[in-house]
């Protein structure tokens, strides 16, 4: 589960909502139900259940998951200086051994996805959900997104309570 400094600000999982989803269904309040569902995080690793199982089984972090499922190292996102010299070497291999050897080499040793690292443009960052923006900000600042044990707090939907009270007073 994400640390409380993020969970207090952003709606992450349905545990923060308590019984609100059930109440919305029982009262046929489809607008509130849809609003709450749309605000939940789409990232499955943010949920409490996934992280608690990972901690209890000793599967924490990308490397542990790669070892458990026998996966290769991830493809590098950005090129390093040594990758540019590899491109020149591939030209020699093309002339000597042909195109099939280049294809085989690229299957075994994936080339980087981008030749140069660009930071995310502000326009793109602004289009992301707030929780994803916060995670990226932490990643760019070199901070880890920490997981903590579950502690229930308010659901953050005081506005919906005020709306219900106003509707009740209007009736």
TrEMBL record:
Top-rank lineage group of the source organism: Bacteria
InterPro entries xref list: VC2046_fam (IPR021879)
Database matches in Pfam families: VC2046
Name of the protein: Ribosomal S4P (Gammaproteobacterial)
Lineage, uppermost ranks: Bacteria, Pseudomonadati, Pseudomonadota, Gammaproteobacteria, Aeromonadales
